[in-house]
Amino acid sequence: MSESTVRVQPGEAIEPHLRAGATVVLAPGVHMGGFAIECSLTLRGEPGAVLDAHRSGPVLRVDQDGLSVSVEGLTLRGGAGEAGGGLLLTGWSEVALHNVCLEDNEATLSKGGIGGGAYLFRGVLTAEDCTFRDNRAGGGNDLAVGGSARCFVRGGFFAGDVACREGAELTITGAHITGRLVLRGSTTRAPQVSLKGARIDGGVVNDVNLPATVSVEDG
Can you give the pTM of this predicted structure? Predict the structure, then answer.
């Protein structure tokens, strides 16, 4: 491994290794999640590596601006919060998920949270060949994209619903969603949604009064 790469065993602290430019490799087993990423880095899991927040908050949070974060080969589970149980992106940063599984996360509010698996309010998320399952929320139990966020989904599987709201942008290419795609704008903004070869078993629910702009391509 290079000097900027560190391998962390289950039970060892991860946060001291989260430094700019680092590649943090998590060995197989369960690691403690529930922390913020505050610099540009790569977080990579070896086969069988799990980040579990044990309901202490979102598994991963990116609140700051200007970061470039890559998460690869990990399972994110056990997250809980008002929004984004598995991943919460509220900073103007770029986050890429590659072959990541987000499972058994929840977003709860008195009237129902949003984005049990992941919630984006700002920034850009690219999710490539990811799996979302067994996540719970009042809306968008697997993924919710809102505010001014942009999200690019390439391949992967969603066992539940996906939601896009307000002025967000969502592009789904070649993914399989067994739930619904739920779309709703605001009085001043409409979501921009592009579907390219996507399979959505539960159908698209586009708000009649505050609709999104949707384009569809078969291939």
Answer: 0.95
